[in-house]
Every structure is written in structure tokens, then in C-alpha cells.
Amino acid sequence: MKKLVKTIAVVALTFGSVTFSQAQKIAHISLDSLITMMPETKTAQDVAQKYLKDLEATVATMQTELETKYKDYMEKEPTMSELVKKTRQEELQSLNKRIEDFKAQAQEDYQKKYAELSKPIYEKAKKGIEAVAKENSYKYVLDSSTGNILFSEPGDDILPLVKKKLDSMPPASIPGANGATPKTPNNGTNGGGNKPMPPKPGGGK
Fold first, then answer.
1. Residue 149 DSSP class
2. 0.70 exceeded by pTM
3. How far apart are the first and last CA of the chain?
4. 153 in helix, strand or coil?
């Protein structure tokens, strides 16, 4: 009888250990590598490349126009009146500014487009990671390329418990504070031996 009880106890202990181990299972994956391997990434890159080429073609057209007008200006400049010369110079400056503005806007536009194309790929990858994690009882899945947590099971928020624990611990030593604990001013003044309050940001007194 004692042998049977001992056997049951060992089995129960082993089962409990296995269950605890499984509940704490942690996996890792390189999200960057996963994204690179997905066929949708190649499709998104092709679309993004075409979008970029269209922007570059527009810049090239504008640049050609500027170069042509500048060459014409240089050829005719000796015979131009001051009014015509000034007008042509302003035209060249305006066109050059439009080109620079377009380049800056095109860069921002391209980044937004790439993010738009990448979003559904990352969403699909995340769904796949979550599905595998749940199927294999992983508690956490870490991104080995960045260290970020890609998946975690819902858990208890221990903020109140940690805050209570911190309140019972000695104050942290703040460099330059000389270990002094700020006192609360009496009646809104700095009387009673309290130190003056620091000025507010922005130069206020």
C-alpha cells in the first residue's frame, strides 16, 4: 500500500513539473528572416520598386527641363535686357526649388507606400506566430533579431503588487540629491526651513 502511495506521489510530482514546464515554454524566431522568406515580400518589393521608378522618372523629367532652360539662358544671357535676365533667373530658381521640394516629398511618399505594402505582411506573420505559439503551448515568443516579445499569453497585471513592494523598500539613492527627502511647503510658501522650489521650464520664476 505504501509503495502504491509513493508511486502515485511520484507520478503526481512529475506531472506537475511537466505541466509547469509547459506553461513556461518560451520560443524564439527571427522575424526579419521570416519576413524575407515570405513570398508576399517579393511582391511588395516589386510594387515598391515600380513606385520608386515612377517618382525617379518624374524627377528626371523636371531635371532635364531645368538643364535645358539653364543652357538656353546661358546662351542668350549676353543679349538679354536686365528685366528679361531677372525674370529668367527667377524662373530657374523657382523650377529648381520645385525639384528639391518634389524630391523631399517623394522620399516621404515612398516611405509611406513601403510601410503600406509591408503592413499586411507583418500582420500575417504575427498571426502565424500566434497560431503556432498557441498550438505548441508557448508562453512567450521572442524576436531573436531585436529581442522584442512577439507573443505572450494574457497574465495578471502585478503593477499594484510591485508598487506596494517598492513603498516598503528604502528610497533609491539619487546622485546629486544628497539623500535629502523633499518636504511639503506649508500654506503654499517656502517657510519652515523648506528649500525653494526649482524654477519652471521656460525661465518662469
1. E
2. no
3. 83
4. coil
